[in-house]
Amino acid sequence: MTRPEPSFYVTAAIDYVNGDPHLGHAYEKIGCDVLARHRRLRGDDVRFTVGSDEHSQSVERAARAAGMEPADYCTRQVDAFKTMMRAFDVEPTSFVRTSSDANRRTSETLWRALADAGHIYKDWYRAWFCPFCEQFYTEKEIVAGMCPIHQTPVEWVEEQNWFFRLSEFAEPLLDLYEREPDFVVPPPRRNEMLSVIRGGLTDISISRGFSTWGIPVPGDESQVIWVWLDALPAYLTGVGYPDGDDFARFWPADVHVVGKDITRFHSVIWPAILMAAGVPLPRKVHAHGFITLAGEKMSKSRGIFIEPMQLVDQFGSDAVRWVLLSEVPFDRDGDFSIAKFIDRYNADLANDYGNLVSRTTKMVQRYFGGRVPALAERAAIDDELRSTAARVVPVYDAAIDDLQFSEAMAAARQLVGRANKYIEQTAPWTLQRDGDARLGTVCAELLEAVRVSTMLLHPIIPRATARVAAEMGLALGGDLTDEVRSWPRLAEGAPVAVGEILFPRLDREAVLAAE
Ligand code: MSP
């Protein structure tokens, strides 16, 4: 009997659709996509869920402001998010709309499980509410009648709600954090959450009576389920909770990828809800940082904004994927600007990888009629190139597994850089001029370096690498674990085509002047 492939399940945050997708949304989804693609190329069967968070007050208000019914408005916005993901080559296996029938069933099932186990009760709620945070605040927390985060007016709400006994889960959560030290990463976020839990947890209201925009509470049509309690369950819906075949195979999720602003929902409230409902816990919550633009918080209204689609149209999705993940390490905040974009693009893509591919394939074309030459006389410098690959591949794999994409990219660049240096050191053009028999070996070794770097870089820049793979007859699908660790692998005499320039150099001044 063949062993089933190992399974891997990654989720991205379920985006609010009250506005258009921005670079922060794109960044997170790209990170998840890289992880998903990498796991697939290491032989895993992968599921990757994204989705739209539709039942928030801010979505309802945005719909009314646009003169639309919330459901129609959401459908329009969902299209914008899907278009953005397609443009960035983000390929989830499931897009869960929180308003879908499947997600409604998930939320209801979870609600009933909580109710049956005695974890919810009805009580009065009196508090200030911020529709943008979807959160209640105490008198002490608001600042001159304004939300402390959004600086917009808060509203007084007084009503009967259903409550979840979060207060009973402080101990089980502390046990979890102790048992699974990597449950929340990176460490600063874990520490932050530990102090939230140690600071004392109060029960939370999980229904709303003042709105009808949402999923009705099972058995109490006067209330709708709190938006977070139909959004977090979207992760379960993505793999067919409660009884789909995929659920048994893919849950618990290997990692929930979220922004640092929503860590508490994912690493305090969500695990407590799951414990209460008797559903296994996700293995990890990875909280990434925030992108700022030229040092400032993104804000469309203040004009601090870069339209993600425009960036793709202008520079291509590979370039944006690359620059975002290298400029903003996945465990902290990072800044983005067009000037940084150009520098990074020119250094890493045009001068490094693009240049290596172009120089290598052109030499193979010119000297060997576009066929992989035979490996003959080997020298110490060849071994050095090979050993660089042998060293960087495991570093690269481990970094991606830890969602340290910028480190993985740096590892891959070491191989690319070493190969470019190898060209300078071996100077194939002089070997050719002198009729030196080493020429074939040098070009064959270079093709191997291109092959391995193309495989490594594929999850990050899928388009350019797919073109190179097609030009070299490489397969980029299936389990590449062995391929990427073997050298040499290319068959002597196999055709190698010269493609168009992958990443034309950008003229810094001209691009900046046109902005
Ligand atoms: N709907 C909630 C998530 C529910 S998950 C069950 C939400 N939506 S959001 O649209 O506001 O944010 C979606 C994701 O984008 C979040 O992980 C958030 O942290 C992330 N980002 C929002 N702005 C960002 C940046 N400026 N930079 C990086 N990521 C950012 O929260």
Question: Your description of this structure?
Answer:
- The strands form four sheets. This protein has a six-stranded parallel sheet with strand order 3-2-1-12-13-7, sandwiched between helices. It has a four-stranded antiparallel sheet with strand order 5-4-6-8, with no helix packed on it. It has a three-stranded antiparallel sheet with strand order 9-11-10.
- Helix 15 runs antiparallel to helix 17.
- Helix content is 50%, strand content 15%.
- By secondary structure, it is of the alpha/beta class.
- The protein binds 5'-O-[(L-methionyl)-sulphamoyl]adenosine.
Using the alpha-carbon principal axes, give the shape: elongated
Ligands, deduplicated: 5'-O-[(L-methionyl)-sulphamoyl]adenosine
**Level-1 CATH class name of the largest domain:** Alpha Beta
What is the fourth-level CATH superfamily of the largest domain? HUPs
Number of strands: 16
- The CATH architecture of the largest domain comes to 3-Layer(aba) Sandwich
Subcellular location: Cytoplasm
Keywords: Aminoacyl-tRNA synthetase, ATP-binding, Cytoplasm, Ligase, Metal-binding, Nucleotide-binding, Protein biosynthesis, Zinc
Family: Belongs to the class-I aminoacyl-tRNA synthetase family. MetG type 2A subfamily.
Catalytic activity: tRNA(Met) + L-methionine + ATP = L-methionyl-tRNA(Met) + AMP + diphosphate
Q: What's this model, at a glance?
A:
The chain is α/β, with parallel strands linked by helices and 515 residues long.
